[in-house]
Amino acid sequence: MNYQGSCHCGHIKFDVEGDLHSVKECNCSICSKRGALWWFVPLAQARFSTPESNLSTYQFGKKQIKHHFCSVCGCAPLGTGTFNGTAMAAINVRCLDNVDLSALKVKQVDGRSL
Ligand SMILES: [Zn+2]
Q1: How close is the Cα of 52 to the center of ligand 1, in Å?
Q2: Fewer beta carbons under 10 A from the terminal one: N or C of the chain?
Q3: Is the whole model's pTM more than 0.90, yes or no?
Q4: Tens-of-pLDDT digits for all 114 residues of the chain?
Q5: How far apart are CA 48 and CA 106, in angstroms?
Q6: How much distance in Å is there from the Cα of 84 to the middle of ligand 1?
Q7: CATH fold of the domain at 2-94
Q8: What is the rounded CA–CA span in Å between residue 53 and residue 31?
């Protein structure tokens, strides 16, 4: 299935291919403040329809994850990083269109302790 994603203002737009059944809710310092629900997919399954230079990026700690956000409207639709040698994307499913959040299985991740 193909999902359309964007920030609020449309400065960042992308689509993601895959089967979305469950998401991860993380209690680390940034995820808890953002309130994100993450869907992890290989970055190759995501395609941007706006220039990737539209992504503003925040990094902290070990700087292994790029937390992308829109500098215009402030939404944070995804993060990217390399995991076991594969470029991965963490999609914030709250920024995908036509997703029934109440139908998703939410797994808790203890990122705060990592
Ligand atoms: Zn925006």
Answers
A1: 13
A2: N
A3: yes
A4: 999 999 999 999 999 999 999 999 999 999 999 999 999 999 999 999 999 999 999 999 899 999 999 999 999 999 999 989 999 999 999 999 999 999 999 999 998 887
A5: 26
A6: 31
A7: 2.170.150
A8: 23
Q: Where are the domains of the chain?
A: 2-94
Give me the residue label for tokens 């089967």. 19
- 23 DSSP assignment: E
Pairing, β 105-109 against β 22-26: parallel
CA of 85 to the centre of ligand 1 (A): 30
* Structure token pair of residue 60: 């902290």
Cα distance between residue 110 and residue 114, in whole Å:
7
Nearest to 5 by CA among 104, 75, 107, 88: 75
**Separation between Cα atoms, residue 96 and residue 64, nearest integer Å:** 24
> Residue 48 Cα, ligand 1 centroid: separation in angstroms?
14
CA 75 – ligand 1 centroid, Å: 6
